[in-house]
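thought: fold this chain, then report.
action: predict
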Amino acid sequence: MVTYRYGTTTCGGIPNFNFFEYYDMLGMHHELTHSVDRKFLSPNKNSLSEPDPEWEKLNAPEFQYYGKDNFLQLPNVWHPLPGIMLAYGASLLGEDKAVFGALIMGWPATYNLLVQACQTDPFVAAKIRLTVSRWKQFWPFPSAENTEWKIRMAQSERDCR
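observation:
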C-alpha cells in the first residue's frame, strides 16, 4: 500500500504546499509538454536529452543541466536558479521545458508564482514566451478560442511580455 506524507512545506508563501497534489494535477500537462516537444524535435528522438538550441540559449550564461542524479543537490525551493522554476527542471533540458508547460497550465496559485518570476527573471519570461509560441503552433485550432488552453496561452503572453 502506498502512503503519502503531507508536510508543512511552503511554496512561495503557500502554507502546507503539497507536492503530491501539485504533481498529480499538473502531471498531465507536464507529460503533454513532452509530446509537444517531440513534434518540434525528431519524433524518433528522446525529447528529454535531444539538443534544442532555441531553448538552450534562453538559459542563464554558464548554466548546464545537472542530470537525473545531481539535480538533487539544488535546494527544493521555488525558482532555485535564474531561468529554473523547480529543481527538477534543472535535471534535463526536456524536464525544464515540461516543468514550464505544467506551470503555465497549473493551479492559479502556482501560475501566479510563475508570473511573479517572469516579471523579475528575463530567462523565465523568455522560456514562457517560447513555450506559448510552440503550443500555439501545436494547437492552432481557430474554433477553440474559448478553451482553457487558448485562454491560458493568451494570459501567459500578456503576463510575461
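thought: worth noting. The two ends are 46 Å apart (CA to CA).
final: C-alpha cells above.
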